[in-house]
Amino acid sequence: MVRVERVWSTGGVVRIAARTRELTVACPDCGRGSTRVHSRYCRTLADVAVGGRPVLIRLSVRRLFCDAPGCGRRTFAEQVEGLTVRYQRRSPLLQHLVETAGVLLAGRGGARLLQILKAPLSRTSVLFQLMRMPLPLAPTPQVLGVDDFALYADTYGTLLVDAESRLPIELWSGRDAGQLASWLRAHPGVRVVCRDGSLVYRQGITEGAPDAVQVSDRFHLWQGLSKRVSDVAAAHRRCLPAAVPDPEPAPASPAASPEPADTPAQRHAKRLFEAVHAVTGSGRSLSAVARELGLNRRTVAKYARATSWQECVRRTLPRRSTSLDPYLEYLQQRWDEGEHTATVLHQEITAKGYCGHYQRVKMAIAPLRRGLPIDTPRERPPSPRQVARWITTTPSHRSLHATEALGRLLRHCPELNRTHDLVRRFAAMLDARDATMLPDWLDQLATSQLPALAGLAKALREDQPAVAQGITTTFNSGVNEGRICDLKLQKRIMAGRAGIPLLRRRVILMALLRRRDS
């Protein structure tokens, strides 16, 4: 249908001159063929590069008459299949390349890629071509996934995913119940909806698809329970040091004396303790003592309740282990032998493999100069989050250290022991996919005398049918979370500048492109 007349290269650009042959062409409106020529004109088309050089095609095409009596079109321009598209100055192959670059890399990234491929285009033109691409008409899913995501700061959006095909369907700004209910009413036929514990989505699904089965996701159920366990551990923070094994008692010395106040903080605490107890013995009120000494009333109360000044000193956490710890015994040995120079000691342990700085050695032997033992590392008490992680981890997956520390902690704190038992019972329900014990478990949460767990019991009881579905069925929001991660990646690629229309188009089209290529 096309005859190439000439091919040449100028200025690093491959140019091709061609013209269409004298063949019958169908009218785009009525479909009747025509060969009566009205005129000819030239179209300039850009094509994909050849040998690293851009290609320009100068194509002579005909304008034909349509002689059909009932057709409203008088003339029409012929189109070459696979080469020309109406109002398009790029070949379909190059247009597909531009659109693919826009979908995968957005504006700036797509423009850079096209520059390398010898098809230069500005970032705004790449985005313009991307926004022109039509979105596919996705069928109404049987199993729908609903989840929210953060656009920026406190602004959120909603993503709908077909849980069976694992493809995103719709994306909009906001996470209110009205938008979700309107979409569900406009797309009847949704049988199951997977969601998190959001009250907003629960209301929207109830209004828009009252017959759909709602499933509260297992991951979000476990995540919510883990947060409440962390709150319980934080409320019993004073019990957490019990997880650390007791240090070995030092040998008693017959000449042992009370601990001296050898630091400024200890001397200050001792001075305040003596001053407060000297005045409080007279029977005066704490407020009067505070005014006389120029102290805060709470400070006076703290020192008045203490039986010794050591109780009022702020206790510092045990230091963490460092790369110097394996050499502390050697430093103590050399100090006892009479070597008190930090530079020499640093050189000696460097020869033994120490790679640290001299200053750390100097600080390590500082207590020895005051006649005190060298500071050795001790294990720190666990944080509430760490305790919550121990409790929610499957016992067979815990390390030996975590198992021993958690055992000591549970023997010391009955509240945490009760929390551990409740968590294990819920884990057993999830493993067995059996929700028959759920009502009894919720009653135990409510009567556990732990405010954090009692609040969780109230929230789960209001959503109990969806929670039971989340425990027993195989439906979950895993595909939602995967699509949310992909969405956040695309948002970061565009440096957070993408609005909802562009983000929506990229997320949906990219998922289709990946499915087509797989």
Brief overview:
By secondary structure, the protein is an alpha/beta fold. It has helices spanning 92-116, 123-132, 177-186, 199-208, 218-235, 264-280, 286-293, 297-305, 328-336, 342-351, 358-364, 366-369, 384-392, 400-412, 414-432, 438-446, 451-462, 464-472, 478-493, 500-517, and strands at residues 2-10, 13-20, 25-26, 33-34, 37-50, 53-65, 75-77, 143-152, 155-162, 167-173, 192-195, 213-216. Strands 1, 2, 5, 6 and 7 form a five-stranded mixed sheet that branches.
Q: Please, could you describe this protein's structure?
A:
The protein is an alpha/beta fold. It is 47% helix and 16% strand. The protein is built from 20 helices and twelve strands. The chain has helices at residues 92-116, 123-132, 177-186, 199-208, 218-235, 264-280, 286-293, 297-305, 328-336, 342-351, 358-364, 366-369, 384-392, 400-412, 414-432, 438-446, 451-462, 464-472, 478-493, 500-517, and strands at residues 2-10, 13-20, 25-26, 33-34, 37-50, 53-65, 75-77, 143-152, 155-162, 167-173, 192-195, 213-216. The strands form three sheets. Strands 1, 2, 5, 6 and 7 form a five-stranded mixed sheet that branches. The longest helix has 25 residues, at 92-116.
Mean pLDDT: 87
Task: Bin the strand percentage.
Answer: 15-25%
Instruction: Give the overall shape.
Output: elongated
Terminal CA distance = 35 Å
What is the number of helical segments per DSSP (H or I, 4+ residues)? Answer: 20
- Quaternary state of the chains: single chain
Q: Which percent bin holds the helix content? A: 40-55%
Q: Biggest β-sheet: count, sense, barrel?
A: 5 strands, mixed
Give the C-alpha Rg. 38 Å
Q: Give me the secondary-structure category.
A: alpha/beta
Unreliable parts: 249-257
The total strand number stands at 12
